[in-house]
Amino acid sequence: MMIFTLISNEIKKLMMRKKTIIVFAAFILLTIAIGYGVYRDEQNRKQWSSPEFRMANLEESIKMRKQDMDNPNASAENKSSGKEEIANMEQELANIKLEKSGKTVDWKSQLKENIDSSQKILNDNNSGMVNNEKDRMKLELQKSKYLYDNNIKPEEGNKLNALNFIQTLFGVLGTIFIALGVMVFTGDMVSGEFTPPTMKILLTQPVSRAKVLASKFIAVAGVATLLILVVEILSFVIMGLIFGFGNAGYPVIAGTIYKWDLTQSIYGGHPIIAVAGSSYIMTTGNFVIRMFLMQTLFIITCVSVGFMLSSIVKSSMVSVSLSIVIVVALTILVQMPALNKVAQYMFTSYGDIGSVLSGDAVMRFANPNPNVTTAFGIATLIVTSVVSYLIAHIVFTKKDILI
């Protein structure tokens, strides 16, 4: 069919462009830089998680907590909770000493103790914890119970492996780099063709204007998505071969929804709290697959916006520059408290896929925005893509008539 021929020709043109090679190389170099940064963080983590370092920290914490309890102004509740905290820290210290001596530590019994301790603190109305701290502890408790029930040994910190690395990579790239790279890649897709000789050739072909535009969009969306996924999958495989792939069955907390706590007021506003029962546990493997799927939608949205700008502006240089300015501006402006209410409508707010799926994207703004959820994000990306493409179609048709 003619449409497939047009798409094939557009893909060939894209793959032969110098810009494609430059953008692809830039993503590779950026991925390597992120990988090196993660590796250095892992070295620091190993140092901080060494038995000697942990023992020194616990001993200092026990000393400071005892000093707090010796304070004559300390309340009875504070002294009672202090005794429990010291007992827990001393037990943890004993376990570390046992670990250092080379003896086996019963991690499941230790995990059960941590679960019971966390549950006791949450049930204590005099613990002095604020709502956000309680919400975070509840989520961690939910995760700990899943580990215990499914006989999964807890991992120490954010251990370096392929699954953890790919989540970090998604977060860094999605913050701004994917949007910038894709929109620069797409910026001259239509405007670059807006020269009288080129447009005359396109319009004299036995194919509708809609198919000409559609073929360009499908080609650039497919190539952009493929190039990014290739870089990410290759980095995943390489990191897996070097540092291990990790446990795909390890639990991840996802889907947390927040709401305004109208019972409290802070600086003229209200704090946000997690909606009870909104969080759920999924495996890391499932979480990463969902990240890939939602990132694909985000890439298509970036292509749509860049495609729209390329259709509106005839100059390739202006359309690319405008794309860069819009991405940077949206990324910065949504952090302003005055624009907090419109942040959920901006497609750039959903670039950090991992935080969107987990629910932590709410906290990424100057003022937390509980409306930034996974469902709202998917809807925003789809609507932005459709509207952008429709505008590109209308503008492209009008400009055809004027040539």
Topology:
Elements: H1 2-16, H2 18-48, H3 51-70, H4 76-100, H5 107-123, H6 131-149, H7 162-186, H8 196-203, H9 209-243, E1 251-254, E2 258-260, E3 272-274, E4 280-283, H10 284-312, H11 316-333, H12 353-358, H13 374-402
Antiparallel strand pairs: 1-4, 2-3
Give an overview of the whole structure:
With 403 residues, the protein is mostly helical. The protein contains 13 helices and four strands. Strands 1-4 form a two-stranded antiparallel sheet. The two termini are 27 Å apart. 27% of the residues are buried. The model has no long low-confidence stretch (mean pLDDT 82).
Give short descriptive properties of this protein.
mainly alpha; two-stranded antiparallel ribbon; 403 residues; two-stranded antiparallel sheet
Sheet with most strands: strand arrangement: 1-4
| Structural class assignment | mainly alpha
Strand content: under 5%
Give the tally of β-strands.
4
Q: Count up the helices.
A: 13
Largest sheet: 2 strands, antiparallel
Q: State Rg.
A: 26 Å
Quote the distance from N terminus to C terminus. Answer: 27 Å
Spell the H/E element sequence: HHHHHHHHHEEEEHHHH
Assembly type of the chains comes to single chain
**What is the percent of helical residues?**
55-70%
Average residue pLDDT: 82
Global geometry: elongated
